[in-house]
Amino acid sequence: MERTLETIAINSALTIVRLKGETKFKHPLGYTAPWGYCFKHPEKGYFAFEGETSPYIPCGGRKALVSIMEQGGFLNFDNVVWLQPLTQA
Fold it and tell me: What is the dihedral of CA 3, 51, 13, 61, to 10 degrees?
């Protein structure tokens, strides 16, 4: 499977960010405040797989995310959702 121009553009805009339990995301029971490294897109939000309520934070941490990017990123974003953090009141 080849990456499309759109997929390449999304992959190139992803940055690796570190969450420290201060950024909150909506969850059916309230909110989650995850810790760890994840992908963030400047316009779309935080990368998560469909059905998840917090960003994708791999067990391998930052090294796993760097490895994904070194391989050219994701082939497609078909089963991905982009999460927006809850605003601070």
Answer: -100
Instruction: Fill in the DSSP letter of residue 52.
Output: -
pLDDT digits (tens, 9 = 90+) for 50-78: 999 999 999 999 999 999 999 999 999 99
**Helix H or strand E segment including 62:** helix 61-70
Element (H or E) spanning 60, and its range? none
Q: Provide Rg for the chain, Cα atoms.
A: 13
Q: The whole model's pTM is what? A: 0.92
Q: How many residues does the chain have?
A: 89
Query: What is the DSSP code (8-state) at residue 85?
Result: P
- C-alpha 32/C-alpha 42 separation (Å) is 21
